[in-house]
Amino acid sequence: MIKINSLTKRFGEHVAVDNLSFEVRPGEVLGFLGPNGAGKSTTMKMLTGFLAPDGGSASICGFDIRTQTLQAQRQMGYLPEGAPCYGDMRVKGFLEFIAQVRGLSGADRRRQVDRAVEQLQLQGVLHQTIDTLSKGFKRRVGLAQAILHDPRVLILDEPTDGLDPNQKHQVRGLIQQLASDSNKIVVISTHILEEVSAVCTRAVVIARGRLLADGTPDELEARSRYHQAVTLLLQQPVDTAALLALPGVSGVEVAREGHEVTVLAEPGAVIFPAVGEHARQQQWQVKELSVERGRLDEVFRSLTAEEAA
Amino acid sequence: MNSLNVIFKRELASYFATPLAYIFIVIFLVLSAVFTFYLGGFYEGGQADLVPFFNFHPWLYLFLVPAVAMRLWAEERKSGTIELLMTLPVSRADMVLGKFLAAWVFVGIALLLTFPIIITVNYLGDPDNGAIFTGYLGSWLLAGGYLAIGSCMSALTRNQVIAFILSVVACFVFIVSGFPLVLDLFRGWAPQWLLDAIASLSFLIRFDAISKGVLDLRDLLYFISLMVAWLVATAIVIDLKKAD
Known about the structure:
Largest sheet of chain A: 6 strands, mixed
Shape of chain A: elongated
Largest sheet of chain B: none
Shape of chain B: globular
Strand order of the largest sheet of chain A: 6-7-8-3-9-10
Oligomer: heterodimer
Helix content of chain A: 25-40%
Number of domains of chain A: 2
Radius of gyration of chain B: 19 Å
Strand content of chain A: 25-35%
Order of helices and strands of chain B: HHHHHHHHHHHHHHH
Distance between the termini of chain A: 35 Å
Structural class of chain A: alpha/beta
Number of strands of chain A: 14
Keywords (chain B): Cell membrane, Membrane, Transmembrane, Transmembrane helix
Number of domains of chain B: 1
InterPro entries (chain B): ABC-2_transporter_component
Helix content of chain B: over 70%
Distance between the termini of chain B: 29 Å
Number of helices of chain B: 15
Pfam families (chain B): ABC2_membrane_2
CATH topology of the largest domain in chain A: Rossmann fold
CATH superfamily of the largest domain in chain A: P-loop containing nucleotide triphosphate hydrolases
GO cellular component, one term (chain B): plasma membrane
GO molecular function (chain B): ABC-type transporter activity
């Protein structure tokens, strides 16, 4: 359980995190969303005990991060932004070091290091110095370091930032694997929205240090004006005026010189059958017909743009 | 205690993971030989003691020890590993002390490698080996004082060159504080107790006594409390400047 209560952090005049409160329960994979500079990293730095908050409090599994810092830190694995590691150490030595700091010893330590190495497929680079590794491998070393002691709470600051699509896929797979344990809490910060749909059970959107939205990815998608919209791909451009008259239709957008038509639905309305029926009656040559779940990036933009305005 | 040990071992090993350790040791040994035999007139003195050897240590350390200390915290800041380190369940005291002790032991290893000079002086004459031992101890304490200052300066910045320069200046102040150069600035207006206090801060006067084989408990306390004070300052600086 993570409890964040009125957390505030100022850097001089600038308020980086402004009275932020929320809770994360075991079993949740929380996506922490926001534009750059929204206060995501600052919040994570306060959660992990690196920065002291200027106001409010946070606790990890019942341990207050300010007064019981070491106990709270024992519950957590943390991947800082950019996955900093001691570059002159070898991968194996580095993981052994982290395991020792985490108080693991003997057979226990060997087992945990082996498990993390296996989960992140680091077998091939164990004896290389970290400085010589590629970005993807460095990130994996950072992740291995974070999961080494099998923590109850995992906090990952932009775990896939700067990775190639294959590596992103791998890291997401790993996060899902870790989150399959229902007693764990995973918090990831990101500005990549597909990631939220892919791995998170809950998303929190912040901008300028303030909470803007909190819900499941589905709920967030439902706030999109594209929620339940129907998109048609057509052979020839058609006259779309009649579509507006259909029940529940709130608007029509035409793209690609009339070859792509998106019919927007009023909130709560289901328009797919009516639009399909209309297309058949008019004998439009439809190549593709699909219903949209909503566009997270559009929700994200409208939420955070309102805030900026 | 455990995490202090783990931090200490990692830090000490990290010196030897790069060429830094070997370069430092070679330069230290070459320079101390040059100082002892050429500038110190070890042979010409005709004395079976290591006074010419120890005499130059405060000046030798002035540049070499800050070079070891400069990376202690500045490098962690620069590479971002300070965030990793400080979110591990390690107390601030263990971090500061672990890093410091590793650096101190490292300088101690370099110092021990000057042992051929002990063999030389024993071969040439009949020195007081007790005094030589005390001299080594004093030299190591002196290095510890420089390192503690350097540790604090390194915590102030993410730039190792700045850390180096700040440390050299701060150490220099502690060396010359017993010199007329500094004392004359205060003489005439400052009370006598302040003059005595400033003079008593000097590395040189303390070290001079120890290097001649006179181990006074007050001198020992001086070096230890100096180290403790600067290490406490290091911890405070780190706490204040974490985010930078």
